[in-house]
Structure formats: C-alpha cells, structure tokens
Amino acid sequence: MCLxxxxxxxxxxxxxxxxxxNSNSSSSMQQPLCHDSESSALLQFKQSFLINEYxxxxxxxxxxxATWKSHREEGEGxxxxxxxxxxxxxxxxxxxxxxxxxxxxxxxxxSSSTLFNLVHLRRLDLSDNHFNYSEIPxxxxxxxxxxxxxxxxxxxxxxxxxxxLALSKLVFIDLSxxxxxxxxxxxxxxxPDLRNLVQNLTHLKLLYLxxxxxxSTIPYELANLSSxxxxxxxxxxxxxxxxxxxxxxxxxxxxxxxYNPYLIGYLPxxxxxxxxxxxxxxxTRFSGELPxxxxxLGSLTALDIHFCNFTGLVPSSLGHLPQLSYLDxxxxxxxxxxxxxxxxxxxxxxxxLSSNDFIxxxxxxxxxxTKLIFLGLLGVNLTGEIPSSLTNMSQLSTxxxxxxxxxxxxxxxxxxxxxxxxxxxEENQLEGSIPSSLFELINLQYLYxxxxxxxxxxxxxxxxxxxxxxxLELSNNRLSLLxxxxxxxxFPKLNHLGLNECNLTEFPDFLRNQHELEWLSLAGNNxxxxxxxxxxxxxxxxxxxxDLSGNFLTGFDQHPVVxxxxxxRRLYLYFNILQGPLPIPPPSTFEYSVTxxxxxxxIPPLLCNMTSLISLYLSSNNLSGRIPxxxxxxxxSLIALQLGNNNFDGPIPETCTVPNNLRVxxxxxxxxxxxIPRSLANCVMLEHLVLGNNxxxxxxxxxxxxxxxxxxxxxxxxxxxxxxKSWHTNFRFPSLRIIDLSNNELIGDLPYEYFQNWxxxxxxxxxxxRYMQANTRFEMPGYIMPANFMYSMTMTNKxxxxxxxxVPDSFTAIDFSGNNFEGSIPTSIGSLKGLHLLNLGDNNLSxxxxxxxxxxxxLExxxxxxxxxxxxxPSQLTWMTFLEFFNVSDNxxxxxxxxGKQFSTFSNTSFEGNPGLCxxxxxxxxxxxxxxxxxPSSLEQGSTSEFDWKFVLMGYGSGLVIGVSIGYYLMSWKxxxxxxxxxxxxxxxxxxxxxxxxx
Length: 999
Description:
Elements: H1 2-29, H2 36-47, E1 50-51, E2 86-88, E3 95-99, E4 105-106, E5 123-125, E6 148-150, E7 158-159, E8 172-174, E9 187-188, H3 194-200, E10 206-208, E11 230-232, E12 239-241, E13 254-256, E14 262-265, E15 278-280, E16 285-289, E17 302-304, E18 309-313, E19 326-328, E20 333-336, E21 350-352, E22 357-358, E23 374-376, E24 383-384, E25 398-400, E26 405-409, E27 422-424, E28 429-432, E29 446-448, E30 453-459, E31 471-473, E32 478-482, E33 496-498, E34 519-521, E35 528-531, E36 545-547, E37 552-556, E38 570-572, E39 579-580, E40 591-593, E41 598-601, E42 615-617, E43 622-625, E44 640-642, E45 647-651, E46 664-666, E47 671-674, E48 688-690, E49 695-696, E50 712-714, E51 721-723, E52 738-740, E53 745-749, H4 752-757, E54 773-780, E55 783-790, E56 793-797, E57 800-804, E58 813-815, E59 820-823, E60 837-839, E61 844-848, E62 861-863, E63 868-871, E64 885-887, E65 892-896, E66 916-918, H5 936-942, H6 962-965, E67 966-968, H7 975-982, E68 990-991
C-alpha cells in the first residue's frame, strides 16, 4: 500500500513538472511585456500634451493616447505594447513604433521630452497634430535606429536640425505641410540644406518636403538615390534647372515639384522600363515640347503640367497610356490640334486642356470618357453649339466651357448631368433665355453664365431650388432680373454674386438675408439714389470685394464713419455721382476707388489707418485741402496713387520714406505748390509720375533720372524754370519713354546729351499691342485676386488735349512745347527711332530742321511750329510714312515743300506763317516772285497769326499706335460711354481649390 502511494506521488510529481515545463515553454512563446522604463516614458510623453480636437484636421482623428494607463490604474491596458498606436518588438518587448497621427495632441515639445528615451524606435509618426510652433528637437538624433519619420502637418517651426541628418537608416521622411493658418511656411531647410540632407540620408525611398522653405537649387546628388520611389518638393522656393537624371531614377514612381515658379527644366526621352506613375510639374517654368516617348510611361496614372511653358503639339502617344486617370495640360502654349487619340483614355476622371493655343473648333470624340468627373475646356477655341455628346458623361461634376466661341442656346439636356456642381459657360456667344431646366440641377454650387448674349427675364425665386448654390455670375448679358422680395430662408446662401449690367434699378431685396457673401458686384446698372442703410448689415464678417461702380448712386442713407466690413479687400465706387465727404473703408482694404464722383471736403485722418492699401484712386472729385503727411505710411504696400483732378493744395507730401512698391503717382490737375520732394528718389519701383497742371515752382528734377523703371514723366503746365542741367551718368532716365515738359518756363538749349542716351526711346514696338500697367495679386481663402492698374495720362497730341485711357507700352513721346528753349534742334533726336510724338513748338529754336529727323520712321506727330527755324524742310522727312500730323507754321522756313507720301495729306495750316515756303499745298508756286525770303515785317506779322491750335483737326489717319488708344478729353462723361467702355469686364478673380499638402 505504501509502495502504491509512493508511486502515485511520483506520478503526480512528474505530471506537475511536465505541466510546469509546458507552461514555461508556452510562456516563452508569448510576446514579452513592454519595459517599465519605456512605459513610463510614454506616459510622461502623454502627460506633456493636452487633448484638443482642433489640433487635428483628419475627420477620422481620435485621441489614441486616451487608452494609455499605468500599472496603478485599474483595468486592463497596463502593458504599453497593447496601447493604441504603440508597436513593440515581438522578441525584446522594446517599443519600436509610435503611430500617433491625427491624435488631437496639442502642446510644445523639446529635447527633454521622454519621447527621446525610446532609443529603439524605428517608426515615428506624429503627423496631423499641433505642436504649437515648436522647433523639431535636436534630440531626434538620439533615435539612431529610426527608419521612418513623419512630422507632417503638425505646426513645427524653424530650421530643420543638423542632428536629423545623423539618422542614416532613414528610408522614409515626411516633413511636409507645416504651415500656419495663413499659409506661411514654418519649416526651413537652409543650414543644413537639401544637398546636405541628400548626401547623408542615402537610403531614402520616400522624401516628402513639400511646403518646406528650401530656397535653393535641386542638388544633382538627388539622382544618386537609387532606391528613391517618391519625391515631394511642392512649393519649396526651388529655382534653377531641374537635374534631368532624376527622371531616370530606376525606382521613381512619384515626382512632384509643382508650385516652384522659378524652377526651370525639360522632359527627357523616356525609356520603356520607366516606372513613373505620378508626374506633377504644375506652376513651374518647365518648357520645351512633350516628347513622343511620354507614351512609354505605361504605368502613368496622373500627369499635371498646368501653368508651365510647354509648347508645340500634344503628342498622340499621350493617348496610349491605359492607366492615365488624371491629365491636366492647361495654361501652356500648346498649339495645333488636340489629338483624337485622347479618346482612348477611357478611365480618365480629370481632363483639363484649358487656355492653350489649340486649333480646335469641335471635339467629336468627346463623350467617350464616361468616367470623367472634371472637364476643363476653357479658352480652347471651341465653336458651334455645346456638344450633345456630353450627355454621356453622367458622372461629370465640373464642366468648364468658358471663353470659347460657342453659340446657340443653352441646351435643356444639361439637366441630365445631375451630378454637376460647377457649370462654367462664361464669355461665349450664347444667346436666348436661360432654360428653366437649368434650375433643376440641385447639386449646383457654382454657375457662371456671364459675358454672353443671354436675354430675357430671370426670376429670382427659381434660384431657391438651387439650395447648394454658393457662386452665381450673370453679369454682362442682356438679362433683366425680376426682384425677389420674399424673406424665405430657403434662398441659397451665396458667397459670390455678380450681377453687372443686369438692368437693376434698385438693390435686390433678397440681399438683406445674405450673410455669407464674399464677393458682390452690381456694377454698370441703373441703380439710383442713396445706398440703403440695410446694406451695411449684410455679410459684415465675410465680404471681401464690393463693386458698385457705374451706377447713379448719390450717397448713403446713413453715412457710417467707417464702412463695416472688417475683411474687405476691394471697394469700387467709381463712376457714380456720390456727394458729401469721402467714405472711409476698413483698414483691411487693399483696393479703393471713388474716381469720378462729386465728393467734397478734405481727406479725413481716418484714411491714414489704411496701411494695407495697394491702390488708392480718388481722382476727378471736388476734394480739397492738403494731403495728410501720414499718407507716406502707405508707401510700403501702395502700388498706385491717383489723386488727380481735384482741388488739393499745399506742398506735395514726402513719400517713399520707407522701402516701398509705388509704381504709379498721379497728382495732376490740382493746386500743389512748392518743389517736388526729393524723397521721390527713394521710389525705386516708380514707373509713372504725373504732376501736370499744378503750381509747382522748381527746376527740372534731374535726380529723377536715377529711377531705373521710370517710363512716364508728365510735368507740363507748372512753373518749372531755368535750364536743364547737363546730362549725368547717375541720372540717365534709362527706361523713359514719355516725357512732357510743355507750358513751363524752361530756358537754354535743348538737352542734346539726354537725347543721345535715352535708350528706351530708341526701341521700336513689337507686333503685339500691350498697355502700360502695374500688375499684382493678393490671395484670400478660395480666391486669387489679380489687381491690374492701367496707366492713364492726358497729353497734347495733334494740337488737341487728349485723355489716354490706356497707354500702349510701345508709345514714345517728347513734348517740350510752350517753353523758352533756344538754339538749334539737336541732330541726336534722330537716334530716337521709337518716337511716335515730337512736339517742340512755341519755343525760340533757331537754325535748320535737322535731316536726321527723317530717321524717325515711327513718328506720327511732329510739331515744330512757332519757333525761329530757317532753311528748307529736309526731303528726308518724307521717309516718315506713319506721319499723320505735321506742323511747321510760324517759322522762317524757305524753299519748296517736299512732295509725295504723307506730305500729300497735309493742309495749308501745316505751313502757314512761312512766307518763304512754296509749293503744294500752298498757293505760292516755287520760282514765282511770291516765294521770296521773308522780310522782318512779314516775320512780325507771322508771329501774330490768328490761327488757334485748339481747333486743329486731328489729321487723316488714325496712327499705328496713337490712334489705337486715344479718347478725347471730355469735361463731362456719360453713363452710356462708361457702359460701352467698361461694361464687358474680364473676370478679375481666379477660383482656387484645396490641394494635397504632401505633393
């Protein structure tokens, strides 16, 4: 019995050891618990941040660290290897991965963070959090095992640390998208720079640095990263030439360098084995032709090269890319036909060919791309009616056919495209009424029908069906709008509304309930009376641009001290009949124009708060008093300042006292006195200076010749006196094309050295007519707003004072008339071969007319009248085949008048007051006794000619340049003239779309 009991005990003991052995064996196969030190480090890292749902932008974000708990806390979860976002090594238990993307983390981080105690980390993802503009800690260099680092879109700031370059095992790095709410770049890669990074991190497969300020060339060493599969360098300030060998990297699948406007480059010949899938070059200066070999990129799914400088034909091989789903060739210089092979791209979802130089007319293959979501054919010369084949594109969301030559009516079948959110038919030749079926497209968000020939009545209540509509443009048609007086809340909440030239006679009542408008334009209508009080309450917090120009508005029902829209950037009130004091926009305003109204009083001091102004147009009112000195503060941002045709007096205030961008100053037709302030010499960007018709008492401002970009200088009808000082190399006027010193008190010889060195006047114009203007732009969320300021001036031409509403950039003119210049006409004027107008009349010039004037073959107007010139008219003047106005009256000229060509078009008045002249068109035949040299008495008689040059007829032709752009100067203006001239306004805004930050 005892033996049996003993044997049972041994069996039980052996079973126990077997169980224990199996248990230990099983335990050894389970993942070990994480290390206490790393668990503690993670918990301290968690505690250093707040959980803030605004810290992450991803809709799927959630607080991953909320599940992290310590050993002392109850429940499960004390093993950090089981925590959300934590990855551990299965053998050692060390934390090797931390995946906290979009985790609502908010707070600062530095090198003392316990995160950097996790020295076994291989993967670290902190993207889409908010690290409160911290610098990337230098302690990141302690994570020497790191292979993947993602700090994108997390509000890191400053220079990328040198220590990051020590992470030699990195194969993935993403630092993209670190920008502030205004879009400013927060991270920079300067020291170290991109070359240093590439030279140290040689194992990289994915490199994303988009929206990092790199501001350098792209190093050729990038082409040595043979493992690289993805390269994202969007909007990094890159410049110079893109290394072509990067295209030949054997593994490269994704390449994005878009939005680097100073980066140049060319596409190579591609090989069959090239694995490229995504190629984004948009908004760079890549140029040349698309190689036919692009058809070898069989894996290509997306090609975006819009806003580049590509030329030539679109290769038909592009239609042989079966995987291509995204194709954007817009805003280049492609020409010829769009290849019909694009019909093969049947899986395209995005196709944009807009704004090229195609010869298109029709696209019969359209409609085969049935999966298209986006179709952009703006400005591709489409003719005929809107293609009915578009009905096959049932998934179409955006249809842009604007700026073509489409005719006929808007088809009712468009209502079948039920997925449309954006319909753009602007600037075509469409006619007829807007079909009511268009208002059945209930998903429409943007509807642009402006600048066509549409007619009929639009009933506002139909718009209530389009509940998703946010942008509506009906401007510049022949439409009438039936007012909508209901306060029904179902009317769509718009952010953009354009109703220019829609025959409105009052402010539409439905505007009372529009509180989200960003853009409102009611220009060129027939709205009379005052601006109603309720207008000040609409969209107070959102309005960016307001255009009420070209109406018959007289004032304000209740005049606010400052207009209430605190986000306003553009305010146009010009061409009305506004009376009373100057309205004051909010300080946020960039563009302000009240030109041609009847405003009175002084410029109020509150205007000095508008330190963000880009343009200030107050001309042609009845404003008076002195210009506040504080307006010098505008110089930093201001580009265009026009205060002409008012009653301002006193000295011209100092301006350009700080670094500035001023390009246009027009203070003409006022009563300014004193001298030109020498501070104008600091306006180094100045192109257009007009100070005519004032009471300025000064010598010729030779020092303005130091301004490198000055094109136009108008100083006529002032009190400038004395001789023009000798030419100086520091004051060369290197860009001067137009100068008007007429009707002053200048004396001495004509400045022959100036004529020798005015190089810009020696250039003849090109074939394309362009106008002098200042161009800039400012950006707002959803808008890029170009600001184009056409230069204008008044100048005497062909005996009449004319208003140049636009000034051709090739136009060149010299007017020194009405002074007391003496001596001979310098022969050096003949070198200014670009001259179109030369007026030296009404001086005391003597000697012969130089034959070198015959070299001025572009000249259209030549006035040498009322001088003391003698000798014969040179026959070389007949070479001036564009000459349409010629006046040498009231001189001492003798001999025969040259015959032929333009001289056969001139009348007697061109030669009167020269008793010694003979031949056609004068009645005195050459060789007769009547054609004798003048006597002193006859000269005295000739000097009192009764001919009044204010009534000179303007010649027979219209002139190559002058006739294109001149309008007569009118003492009053008519509304009809305004509508005819300015009614068809081009769209001066560009819609923007949200783009990914990584590529």
